[in-house]
């Protein structure tokens, strides 16, 4: 009988960190030399946040592309997470070969919900080779944000405009990067989640192509800097400390960081086997914390998280 | 000449290099069709969001390519947050761009003039035409010093100049603000 690798997601809200723990635990438990099936199990109260969801999406699609069977098992008939992800367009962008139990939600019901989701979350695909299809994405996602924040009584109009401008810039610059540099064959994703209750926004862009640092390292002027550890390199990039050939590379990411800092935003970058977390400090992005030894995930997955309350 | 950027854009939001290049070519065609126009006023009316790459590609690279010959400025900016990205793009390319809030108040995007040049730039921006001898007198400088500062401001892209024949038979310049 084939042995399946089973990832048990926690029975609670699952953010990127919890997702990575669950993956590592599953991969560690799996002892067979060949994995022909991976099962992701969602207990009844499991709800997945967008930073975890894009990693799950990318991993599932990459496994399918490699010929590994993938199953999502939702525990319960009307599983909250399944409905929530369904409204967000998640199952439309998930590879069709992924088996979903008890059953895949009916795609015809998605359109009814889009734009009316109080816990707003939205996924859009970045189709490899179809860049013209992404022309309106930054605007669409920013409009979605605007709809979600319009009723917040504690947000001043000025703050809302700043927030929209920041969101638009981040999506636009990151999507541009995916299209220009990722050399991806698999589709990428852009996703947005507004947590009105928690006063937070997450902006995520994900691709399954060449990793960010593999693209950037050859373009660094200094040989010494090229051999910096991933976390230190990312920190230097966001801090503007690097010299490039040609000059001006990396400016898009720094621009995103500038906007996110206005909202005391944090940045999480998931690369092949590590994840780097940047936190704001008094002079920009200072601290960089790195988690190594993560389950292999191709590509670059960048998440900006910022606060809707009291921007600086 | 006045150009409404929105008319060159497909949508009120602009992003990315591909869109930037398309808009740049339309702007270039307009500008090349009017060789006598040295001041290009770009109106941002009805432009909503822009990222950093779009203004860099569409306008600021173009402004840099014409530096010294034609000057670009921005007008009708309703939302100052939009300018953060234009400023980032201008600093990236080391190309200053003046934004006029009204006839008198302005902001310089991109690299800022050095402290030594600031009074001279303020002077030029406050009048329609600046001549070296008048500038020297207004700022209590020696004529040669004033001439050097004006030339430097022109070379760095903050102002324009045009030739005037001097009574001595040589060439003198008058300096004009980009507005």
Describe the structure.
The complex is a heterodimer of chains A (312) and B (179). Chain A has helices at residues 16-29, 50-65, 80-87, 90-93, 110-113, 137-149, 157-181, 212-216, 223-226, 230-239, 251-262, and strands spanning 4-8, 13-14, 37-42, 47-48, 69-74, 99-101, 121-126, 188-195, 200-207, 266-270, 275-281, 284-291, 300-307. With 312 residues, chain A is of the alpha/beta class. In chain A, the strands form three sheets. A seven-stranded antiparallel sheet of chain A has the order 7-8-9-13-10-11-12, with helices on both faces. Chain A has a four-stranded parallel sheet with strand order 1-3-5-6. Chain A is globular, with a radius of gyration of 19 Å. The N and C termini of chain A lie far apart (58 Å). The mean pLDDT of chain B is 95. Chain B has helices at 5-8, 16-32, 53-65, 82-93, 118-126, 132-138, 143-155; strands spanning 2-4, 39-43, 71-75, 97-100, 106-109, 129-131, 160-165, 171-176. Chain B has a five-stranded mixed sheet with strand order 1-2-3-4-5. A three-stranded antiparallel sheet of chain B has the order 6-8-7. With 179 residues, chain B is an alpha/beta fold. In chain B, helix 3 (53-65) links the parallel strand 2 and strand 3 (71-75). The chains are: A alpha/beta (312), B alpha/beta (179). The A-B interface holds A 131, 135-136, 138-139, 142, 161-162, 164-165, 168-169, 172-173, 175-176, 179-180, 248, 251-252, 254-255, 258-259 and B 10-11, 13, 15-19, 49, 51-54, 79, 81-82, 84-85, 88, 92-93.
Order of helices and strands of chain B: EHHEHEHEEHEHHEE
Radius of gyration of chain A equals 19 Å
Helix share, percent of chain A? 25-40%
Largest sheet of chain A: 7 strands, antiparallel
Strand content of chain B: 15-25%
Largest sheet of chain B: 5 strands, mixed
Average of pLDDT of chain B: 95
Largest interface: A-B, 25 and 21 residues
User: What structural class is derived from the secondary structure elements of chain A?
Assistant: alpha/beta
Rg of chain B, Å, rounded? 17 Å
Q: State mean pLDDT of chain A (0 to 100 scale).
A: 83
Q: How many E strands of chain A? A: 13
Helix-strand topology string of chain A? EEHEEHEHHEHEHHEEHHHHEEEE
**Helix/strand structural class of chain B:** alpha/beta
Rounded to the nearest angstrom, the distance between the terminal CA atoms of chain B is 10 Å
pLDDT < 50 runs, ≥5 residues of chain A? none
Apparent shape of chain B: elongated
């Amino acid at each position: 009988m084939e042995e399946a690798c089973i990832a048990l997601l926690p029975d609670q809200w699952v953010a990127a960190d919890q997702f990575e723990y669950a993956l590592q635990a599953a991969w560690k438990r799996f002892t067979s030399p060949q994995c022909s099936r991976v099962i992701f199990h969602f207990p009844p109260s499991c709800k997945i946040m967008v930073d975890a969801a894009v990693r799950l999406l990318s991993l599932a699609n990459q496994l399918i592309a490699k010929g590994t069977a993938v199953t999502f098992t939702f525990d319960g008939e009307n599983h909250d997470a399944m409905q929530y992800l369904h409204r967000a367009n998640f199952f439309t962008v998930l590879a069709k070969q992924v088996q979903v139990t008890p059953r895949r939600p009916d795609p015809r019901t998605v359109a009814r919900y889009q734009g009316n989701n109080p816990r707003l979350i939205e996924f859009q695909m970045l189709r490899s080779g179809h860049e013209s299809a992404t022309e309106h994405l930054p605007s669409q996602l920013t409009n979605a944000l605007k709809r979600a924040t319009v009723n917040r009584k504690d947000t001043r109009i000025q703050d809302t405009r700043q927030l929209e401008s920041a969101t638009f810039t981040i999506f636009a610059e990151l999507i541009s990067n995916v299209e220009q540099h990722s050399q991806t064959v698999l589709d990428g994703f852009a996703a947005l989640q507004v947590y009105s209750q928690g006063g937070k926004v997450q902006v995520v862009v994900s691709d399954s192509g060449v990793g960010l640092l593999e693209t950037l390292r050859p373009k660094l002027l200094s040989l010494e800097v090229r051999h910096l550890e991933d976390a230190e390199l990312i920190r230097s990039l966001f801090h503007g400390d690097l010299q490039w050939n040609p000059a001006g590379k990396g400016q898009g990411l720094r621009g995103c960081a500038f906007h996110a800092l206005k909202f005391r935003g944090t940045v999480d970058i998931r690369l092949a086997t590590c994840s780097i977390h940047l936190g704001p400090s008094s002079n920009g992005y200072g601290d960089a914390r790195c988690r190594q030894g993560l389950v292999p995930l191709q590509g670059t997955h960048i998440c900006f998280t910022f606060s809707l309350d009291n921007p600086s | 000449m006045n150009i409404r950027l929105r008319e060159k854009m497909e949508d009120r939001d602009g992003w990315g290099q591909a869109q930037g290049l398309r808009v740049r070519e339309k702007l270039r065609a307009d500008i090349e069709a009017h060789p006598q126009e040295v001041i290009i006023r770009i109106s941002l009316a009805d432009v909503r969001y822009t990222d950093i790459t779009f203004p860099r590609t569409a306008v600021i690279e173009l402004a840099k390519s014409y530096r010294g010959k034609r000057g670009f400025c921005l007008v009708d900016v309703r939302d100052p947050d939009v300018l953060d990205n234009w400023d980032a793009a201008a600093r990236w390319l080391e190309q200053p761009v003046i934004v006029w809030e009204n006839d008198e108040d302005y902001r310089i995007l991109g690299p800022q003039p050095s402290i030594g040049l600031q009074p001279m730039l303020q002077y030029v921006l406050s009048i329609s035409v600046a001549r070296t001898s008048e500038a020297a007198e207004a700022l209590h400088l020696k004529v040669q010093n004033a001439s050097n500062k004006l030339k430097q401001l022109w070379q760095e892209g903050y102002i324009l100049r045009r030739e005037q024949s001097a009574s001595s038979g040589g060439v003198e310049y008058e300096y004009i603000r980009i507005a």
